[in-house]
Amino acid sequence: MNLLRFAVRRLLEMAVTLLGASFVVFGAMYLAPGNPASFLLAGRSASPAALAAIEKQYHLDDPFLEQYLRWLGNVLHGDFGRSLEYRTDVSDLLSSRLPTTLLLVGMALVLVVLLGLALGWLAAVRGGAVDSTVLVGTTFAVGTPAFVAAILLQGFFAVELGWFPSSGSGSGHGIGQMMWHLTLPSLALALYLVGLLARVTRSAMLEALEGEHVVVARSRGVPERHVVRRHVFRNALGAVLTTAGLIVSTLMVCTVLVETAFSVGGIGQLLELAATTKDFPTVQAICLIIIGLFMTVNLVVDLLLPLVDPRITLGTRSSS
Fold this sequence. Notes:
Number of strands: 0
CATH class of the largest domain: Mainly Alpha
CATH architecture of the largest domain: Orthogonal Bundle
Oligomer: single chain
């Protein structure tokens, strides 16, 4: 399939999926117990006339489909509405907090890729005690939830040793201070995925090591480091790339727990606060952003797979 045609088809599929997701996200407001207008009153009592005035002001008395189409039109123009909790535009809230979350996720992703690939490579190539050590370490990592890792890292490195800050993002003090503040949160966020990627890399490389092309390359006297790099690791990259969607989605979900534990102040913590206070416009906006990011990563992975592994055609993924 032509690359351009495939990309266009996937973009159209993404648009349809996002449209469906937006309908579900918006409709979820009506599944919450109580009247949406009651959340605007923050627990205060109001007369029926005052309640009707609030519903009219926020168009809550309009038919559901009309409300959804109005909201969708605003979203397409970059307007996610006004936060019910913070009394400001949701777009402003997101723009002030999104850089912190992106830096946190970026730092965690770097740790996941570097440590996960390195540990998987070492376990597959070295074997023996190295392989056993990596398996034990990754078992611990995969079995440790992000919020547990956050508590352990915070208690030991921040409270006991005092090496890192226990909370905050360091925003407003330069990129260096932000990275220092986000070191422990990024470690807590990356721990599970490092173990997962290391195991996927190890399994894929062990399978590639048994391939006939590897035997042929060794019989021709190709140096072992070239065999591993060119014939083993490259063939294993297809299986590694297929986990990219899972990695990104896990990072975005777990950042809610980690940011809350460290009081980072990104969109993960904002989502938790918005869900607690029934701040529907904010929850809707963040959910759409996460869904869009997940779908974009999957599209990029599908476009990269044929370049990494020529055996894979557009629209298919390796099952190895």
